Amino acid sequence: MHDVASTSAAEIPAARSPDERWRVVARNAFPFIVVGGLWEIVAHLGVFPARLFPPLEAVAAAFWRLTIAGILPHHALDTIIRLLSGFALAAILGVAIGFAMGRSRRAEDIFLPLVAIGAPIPGLAYAPLFLLWFGVGNLSAVLLVGFVAAFPIIFNTWTGVKAVKEIWVRSAQAMGADNRRLFRHVILPGALPYILTGLRLGLAQAWRILVGVEMLAAVSWGLGWLIFGAREFLNTDVMLAGIAVIGIIGLALEKLVFQRLENFTVVRWGMMS
Amino acid sequence: MTAGGERMRSVRRGVITLVVVAAAYEAMARSGIFPSALVPTLPKVGSTLLALLLDGTMLAHAFYTLYRVLLGMALAIAVGLPLGILMGRFKPIENFFLPLASALMPIPSLAWVPVFILWFGIGNTVSILIVFYAATFPLLLNAWSGVRAVNPLWLRAAGAMGANERALFWKVIIPGAFPFIITGVRQAFLRAWIAVVGAEMIAASDWGLGWVIYDAKEFLNADVMLASLAVIGAIGFLFERLAFGSIERATVMRWGMVRTAKG
Prior knowledge:
The complex is a heterodimer of chains A (273) and B (263).
Chain A: H1 2-15, H2 18-45, H3 56-68, H4 71-103, H5 105-118, H6 127-134, H7 138-163, H8 166-174, H9 179-217, H10 223-232, H11 236-267
Chain B: H1 3-31, H2 42-54, H3 57-89, H4 91-104, H5 113-120, H6 124-149, H7 152-160, H8 165-202, H9 209-218, H10 222-253
Helix pairs in contact in B: 2-10, 3-4, 3-6, 3-8, 3-9, 5-6, 6-8, 8-9, 8-10, 9-10
């Protein structure tokens, strides 16, 4: 039954006529054409100074120029490395703490008050404190991103481990599973949908503040810094090109990383559709 | 052990954790390894907080921050909710706005701060617009999915009982979508709260909790920073618990759409 449903669902897009596919593309492109057209009209009418409100071709030219010169890729790469190292830190610590809290009452009692106090403060508010303690630059930025991303990961892992049905654990134990097997074959798969949600939220949270952190921490490369620095010279075209790259990275993180990961694990195991 | 005894033990352990962490911090602060300007003792942070609260500056900062958040949120609710509901009801509107929203959503609100500073100058406008940008998308998407999630059976039942379009909207669709809308407002507030602190730090403007923290860095006033952090955390916590909790109890829980979580 399940197989039938999935194959027929997979066949529908293939069976579509190319005509219909074009219609979908056109329908999705239409709003951008309208908004882009309005932008062009306003930019060319000269209502606002061109330095502050550049036409789209100037933004595209800036994008192209900076990409060819290798400046934009360098900024983007540094931002991504910072994001991933902070996120890796958060993922390892967050999942470990969350698991401990979910499995042991003692760990739960110890960590819960700390997490509950830390979580409601927006992560960015800690930024100046981190800068003061760890100095201006990369270390502060990575630590802060990791710190902020850790909270949703801890919460969701904890909830996920607690949501594993007691009866699964007991039946696995009755069938003679040792602790290691229990963890590997019951608790981890059972908690994984929650953990993935936590990782996703953590990455989104990290991404939302990273740009701001880069502006505050005065790192030498990074998209946030590129945008912030361009303000001094009124290079609005560079700023908008930078924002476009930020949007592309954000979209790619969501579509390429997480949807894939989910399809490979929990959807395949039939725990989510 | 009884449930009550277990609960007592949890509370006792929690308190012990906090006391141990506070004592460790205090020992570190007093040991003199780190300069006291960077790692102030807890009594110092407490007295700074009290002094700032008593002379009214902290209240003024909190007032400015709240003013920006609430105005930005109000704008976002005025735009995001109706648009989301319309998107859920009318296909052409969805076709037009959904691609735009999906393209703008992955861009963090703070990326716009420098652009908005150029366009609108430093001050209140930038922070309010950033809050607006941060809060609109969760509202829009939740309202949209809420309207789409309304059980079609309810719509048909109401239609069969002779409800006109207007009654259908106010009596079926809005209450049906309300749990989603409340989730949207909650998420929007969380994002707005982060965005306002960031915007105040970057678009410095003399008042606001984010600005105090950032400004204190220049003078190495870690005690002021920690005091403001406590205020920011307290306000966020109060909003989450009191404001949204009571809205939820007064609406969706009373209507029996979500059950009260136990414990």
